[in-house]
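Sample log: Glycoside hydrolase.
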Amino acid sequence: MGLKAITAALALVLCSRGFVSAQKAVYAHFMVGIVENYTVDDWKADMADAKAIGIDGFALNCAPPRVDSYTPKQLANAYQAAGESDFKVFISFDFAYWQNGTFTFHPGSLVTDHHPWWLDDTALITTALQNYSSLPGQAKYAGGAIASTFVGEFFDWAPVKAALSVTALPMLEDPIQATELHTSFDGALSWYAWPTDGGNSIIPGPMTTIWDDKYFEWLAGKPYLMPVSPWFSTHFNSKNWVFVCEQLITDRWNQILALQPQLVEIISWNDFGESHYISGPQPNHSDDGSSQWAAGMPHDAWRRITKLYIAAYKAGASVPTVDADGLVYWYRPTPKDTRCTNDTLPAPNGINLLSDVVFVTTMLTASATLTVTSGSLAPVSINVGAGIVTSNFTMGVGTQSFAVSRNGAKILGGDGGLKIASTCTTYNFNAYVGGF
Ligand SMILES: *[C@@H]1O[C@H](CO)[C@@H](O)[C@H](O)[C@H]1NC(C)=O
Ligand SMILES: *[C@@H]1O[C@H](CO)[C@@H](O)[C@H](O)[C@H]1NC(C)=O
Ligand SMILES: *[C@@H]1O[C@H](CO)[C@@H](O)[C@H](O)[C@H]1NC(C)=O
Ligand SMILES: *[C@@H]1O[C@H](CO)[C@@H](O)[C@H](O)[C@H]1NC(C)=O
Ligand SMILES: *[C@@H]1O[C@H](CO)[C@@H](O)[C@H](O)[C@H]1NC(C)=O
Ligand SMILES: *[C@@H]1O[C@H](CO)[C@@H](O)[C@H](O)[C@H]1NC(C)=O
């Protein structure tokens, strides 16, 4: 082989490697529908919190402008904020609202735009992607602008790809669709982030990788956007159930470290309605009724756990590295059998499968003694090892207190921010999360 040929071969290898070995990234699902009045600064505040734990970008879950007139404005705000924050975003078209074919005009609907392409979602989706995909805030994979969906696996990406360079990572509701659909998708997102046999069936925990294994098998090397979520409880009249999450956050992240998917999506950043947010309280988001169970119920401390796992995932490590001692706790506000006195809805489905326990994740540089005093119950002390360990303790009504000691000296701890109560007016199966 002459020098020229070697150089050419080397260039080919380098180029194809650069193309194929896209970098691992962690995205978080962001509900644009609740930030109608967000400013660029509001977006930047969220992006700063997300970046601080290693999140690379937001998947912008949104409805078309005929449903939420502010979608274009908020997409523009998000892309501007991302571009100015060294952060990435991509659009996640919510196919509860977008259509996988020609949108049919219904007399009386909100469609007033005279442009015909508003009535054709293939064109509308293409335009939305063209609007933003060349901006610096656009998340990319293998050179293409990432586009994703919530449901919507029947949408055909071929005409979109004819117009611009897109890496289509739609949600597939069933992993077998990876072998059946001919929609020009490049990879897939799974929504099976909670224990379920499919649909929204509620099964006992703990979470397994039974779904993930199928996505990996049937995607056959195409990128898998693996979902991770800390919790799920919701209490609307249209949906009123819990999934059995318990210590899902550390169980699931350990599965991610074991499986090392190409990409990860945290569900969610700010879905207060389903109680799986890890953002701060977002003072400027609008309230869809979820404040009944999300107000005053912080989840921020879950970001401390997430940060260590994101670093480990990106490093390809099988366990996270802990370089400072810490503790994160979470628990529900009442034992599960508590009857609430003034709720128009019954208790959520699935609560009979929950355990009345308090969860503690210790993040320790060396083994120590963890002592938990749950309400009126006697203090319980256990030895916990170094690294990230999640333990649980029988729930007692009253103040929750936590202490970690090493060599007989207390190193951290304090009282939980919420007392567990034996009475309630409305059902709340969200978790109160705090830490030391
Ligand atoms: C919320 O909006 C107000 C008024 O626009 C603004 O002053 C404040 O900084 C915003 N808060 C955050 C966290 O962005
Ligand atoms: C795309 O840009 C056009 C032209 O500025 C604008 O009218 C439209 O609302 C944008 N669409 C989206 C989804 O952002
Ligand atoms: C969307 O896809 C489904 C499944 O292929 C199909 O039944 C439906 O007709 C499609 N909708 C449109 C508007 O093309
Ligand atoms: C957003 O601002 C507009 C104009 O001030 C107001 O009419 C609307 O109610 C606000 N939306 C929410 C959800 O707060
Ligand atoms: C029960 O809830 C309703 C609102 O849903 C409220 O108006 C009423 O004051 C509540 N009653 C009691 C006794 O708290
Ligand atoms: C509590 O911890 C025990 C011991 O590790 C474990 O067997 C059990 O599954 C845990 N309970 C829950 C609800 O996670």
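Observation: The pocket of 2-acetamido-2-deoxy-beta-D-glucopyranose (ligand 5) is lined by residues 342, 425 (CB under 6 Å).
Observation: Residues 83 and 136 are 5 Å apart (CA to CA).
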